[in-house]
Amino acid sequence: MTNAEEFNLLHIHAHDEGMESDAAPESTDLVRHEGSTGARMPLLVSISGHTDAGQLSEQLAETLLGTLPHRSVAHFEVDDLFDYRSRRPQLTFTENRFSELQGPRLELFEVRDASGRPFLLLTGDEPDFQWESVTETLLQLIEQIDVRLVVTVDSLGLPTPHTRPIGVTAHGNRKDLVKGISTWSPDAKIEAGLSQMLELRADEAGRDVVGYTLHVPHYLAGGKYPQVAVAALEYAGAAGELILPTDELREGARSVDADITRQVEQAPEIAHLVKQLEANFDQYATTNQRSLLVKEGDAVPDAEELGAAVEEFLRNQD
Known about the structure:
- By secondary structure, the chain is α/β, with parallel strands linked by helices.
- It has a single domain, classed as PAC-like subunit (Rossmann fold, 3-Layer(aba) Sandwich), CATH 3.40.50.
- Helices cover about 35% and strands about 20% of the residues.
- It has helices at about 55-65, 130-145, 175-180, 195-205, 225-240, 245-265, 270-285, 305-315, and strands at about 10, 40-50, 70-75, 90-95, 95-100, 105-110, 120-125, 150-160, 170, 210-215.
- The strands form 2 sheets. Strands 1-3-6-7-2-8-10-9 form an 8-stranded mixed beta sheet, with helices on both faces. Strands 4-5 form a two-stranded antiparallel sheet.
- Helix 1 crosses helix 5 and helix 2 (about 130-145) packs across helix 4 (about 195-205).
- The longest helix has 19 residues, at about 245-265.
- The chain is globular.
- The two termini are about 35 Å apart.
- Mean pLDDT is about 85; it is low at about 1-5, about 20-30 and about 30-35.
């Protein structure tokens, strides 16, 4: 049995700690896989930081934890990792009382996808301090429970138009999950985040790891952009062989698209900028991007075939 002391900075929860309602899965020992299928779980990493355009991390956490059975299995000690004066917690003040302190967090969940398969989700805020220690702690955990695949998702604001499909830069050591996926793959020096450090260290340790960096139109990067969360869940789900929910996000994306269209129509200067971005995108866009959902040599199913497959899956569920 592994206790919290074995993992620096990380508090492992007891079996009954952080459990959700009766709809949640039975408690699974994080190390021994008790009560689980015994299958090696993937780890999905989505944390807020400088690579979080379109509020990707928040949307992923809200969607996955708001719709899928889950339990909190561990959390990092935030007092050791965060600068409260540069990122002050928020309070609710009502009449003469304070309540609902919302500070930084970095938490690990066990989640079950739509088919009941377990996976781990690391979500929360990127720490201010001790990146190497946090990364080493996560690598110890990955090694101890034998995570089969680490998947990171993040996003950048780039000069792309909202009228074109969201682009992606794929990276990692699993060629079958990276090759032919990227719509843009530059050679450049970039500013690192904790997710990138974890991916690098996991690769150096010989663990399977992939990452997908989504491209958000730079003029929409500061607000909530559901389209980027839909794309991230599609890539993460395909790589981790998971069925992840996107219905509510797609509905939100349609509403955002309609709102953007109205604003562009009312602002000729913005419409001109979008047309310039479209022309640049069309000139350099990759036309032979591979889908993770289609294996080499397979035919791409049409809409009717996809619908029939989904209906068949739903008929077989309880």
